[in-house]
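Example 3.2
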Amino acid sequence: MELYPLKFKPVFKEIVWGGSRLRTILNKNVDADKHIGESWELSGVKGNLSVVANGYLKGNNIQELIEVYMGELVGEKVYEQFGQEFPLLIKFIDANEPLSVQVHPDDAIAAQRHHAYGKTEMWCVIDAEPDAELIVGFNRETNLTEMLEHIKSNTLKDILNVEKVKAGESYFIPAGCIHAIGKGLLIAEIQQTSDITYRVYDWGRNLPNRPLHVDLSMDVICYHAAQGHKVAPPQALNRPEQLVSCPYFTTNKLTLTGSIRRSYEEFDSFVAYICTGGAATVTCGNQSESIVKGETLLIPASLTGYVLLEPQQQAELLEVYIC
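Structure, written as tokens:
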């Protein structure tokens, strides 16, 4: 049977720093008594495979779909590269407290140590409290010895690049960049399919289920001063503006006040739409699906001849694919 725009059941993660914004801002059906820090919207991570929530494929997970539909679902080029593993992890993050200062390995080190992919990612800020902060890289050139001294004296933040952030901003975090999400932030994260994180510093929490990985991180971290991580904010209406293009994903921002038509045949890839504001209807041929703030929709590669996007008054979408 023909594929169609797919929605998936979110996978919720209870984490010590989680808050209530997934429920209050994104209308997620989460327990108000739990610290839900992440909603995994589209995942091929083993043990956390996304399951279809709509249509006749309801109940099938993403790996089962790829086994059957292969390039029709993800694109022939993508299937040749990644096989039956979906190559991206898309999630919402609600930080009620600061996340650990951490770093992710690149593909080479991740393959050597973990038989897995590395982790390059990006953040799109949906909501931010006044004075909310992100940590992205170092504020000057440093080295391992100096970093270890600051960790020992609990002054690591003194050499980290701290960014004051507001809603609508985006940041690119390549593998090797030391980083942390501060408290009071709701973020959409797009990343390689990987769950490998090396914690360098955890603000003195010292929890048994959150070990540090300083030894593993030493030869992973880039010790240069941070530059180029903040993405220029898009300004245009009713046309895509590129936020990030890297070997692992391309992400565009669309602010829609009227209908537009998109085509992706040249990319030979699936397309994911993440709604960060308002609501829209996505039509592929004679098949339509609505998407509201906090939802993610997967457009199979076989349907990307053209896609009609129609906002309900106004919509803000992130458009993600591999090219």
